[in-house]
Write a structure and sequence with these properties.
The protein contains ten helices and 17 strands. Helix 4 packs across helix 5 and helix 4 packs across helix 9. The protein folds into two domains: 192 residues, Medium-chain alcohol dehydrogenases, catalytic domain (Quinone Oxidoreductase, Chain A, domain 1, Alpha-Beta Complex); 126 residues, Rossmann fold (3-Layer(aba) Sandwich), CATH 3.40.50. The protein has 326 residues and is of the alpha/beta class. Strand 14, helix 8 and strand 15 form a beta-alpha-beta unit.
């Protein structure tokens, strides 16, 4: 089968690999679509430490089950989603209290095990998702990380009912989280350097859209930073009203400049990070996305063009989410 291999920082190569076999508790799937996530870019560029040398990236995988290992209740022909979280220990204090995203033994698709930039992939049955029937493969793929992480970031931002939410960066994850916030009655302001992304934000219902450091009307109750840029943290905190919460959604962030306690943190402003997700987050979000009819903006690439898709993502050459369709 064809599969992409991350070889060294910034290098991705298309190779031939044997089709893997499903072991106990695993599903072999034929990849129907795989989203291109900024985390894949961090894996390939070396921003994240190497966990599996030569790993195949990709953790927003929609696939058709073609073989089933022992202990799985899925059948051949089922459509499933493979997401970032691939496994946890199930017994540590974090797992026991429902915070499996914090499990020290957690492993991840496209980082610890080969992912979906390939014709076939292995899913851990216990961590695979049933997908809403109304979503086609291309639109379902970005929901499996961009959507789920955006949903968790929105909840971590503690947005009050009818509150005002600021979003920094407006790519695959942000344009999905914004729609949930809007559906729940929030006012959304978007800060992004991309004119095209600002247009998309306004078309989805944002009340205001401007550049990353522009002045916007009023103060914010909550904010989310999706862009991996630490210099946005002081800017977002300055826009928060008293008691406001900033959630930082990325797995990687450049250094944060020095904060001034009075300007950025006093009056009970707070900063929260977002670390992966739980399976419950994924199930809640997928059900909500299906019910709300979330609009997924996608840009299709063939499997052979995965390197170009990542380069376009790094250069902000598209809005929404890129998807590889073998």
């Amino acid at each position: 089968m064809r599969a992409w291999r991350a070889e060294r920082a910034g290098a991705l190569r298309l190779v031939e690999r044997g089709v893997p076999e499903a072991g106990d508790g695993e599903l072999l799937v034929r990849v129907l679509a795989c989203g291109v996530c900024r985390t894949d870019l961090h894996v390939v560029d070396g921003d994240l430490p190497v966990h599996l040398p030569g790993v195949t990236p990709g953790h927003e995988v929609v696939g058709e089950v073609v073989a089933v290992g022992a202990g799985c209740r899925s059948g051949v022909g089922d459509r499933v989603g493979i997401a970032w979280l691939r496994g946890t220990c199930g017994v540590c204090r974090f797992c026991r209290r429902g915070a499996e995203n914090l499990c020290p033994a957690s492993v991840y698709t496209g980082w610890d095990a080969h992912g979906g930039y390939a014709e076939y992939a292995i899913a851990a049955y216990a961590y695979a998702y049933a997908l809403p029937a109304g979503l086609d493969d291309e639109r379902a793929a970005p929901l499996l990380c961009a959507g789920i992480i955006g949903y968790r970031a929105l909840r971590r931002a503690a947005l009050p009912p009818g509150g005002r939410l600021g979003i920094w960066g407006f790519g695959g994850s942000a344009h999905l989280a914004a729609q949930i916030a809007l559906a729940e009655g929030a006012e959304v302001q978007v800060f992004t350097r991309s004119p095209e992304a600002r247009e998309l934000a306004l078309s989805l219902g944002a009340a205001w859209a401007g550049d990353s450091f522009d002045e916007a009307p009023g103060l914010l109750d909550s904010a989310i930073i999706f862009a991996p840029a630490g210099e946005l943290v002081p800017a977002a905190l300055e826009r928060l009203d008293r008691g406001g919460t900033l959630a930082i959604a990325g797995i990687h962030l450049t250094d944060v400049p020095r904060l001034d306690y009075q300007r950025h943190l006093f009056q009970e402003r707070q900063v929260r990070s977002v670390t992966a997700n739980t399976r419950a987050d994924g199930e809640e979000f997928l059900a909500l996305a299906a019910r709300l009819g979330i609009e997924v903006t996608t840009h299709r690439y063939g499997l052979d063009a995965a390197d170009r898709a990542l380069a376009d993502l790094a250069a902000d050459r598209f809005t929404g989410a890129a998807v590889l369709v073998p």
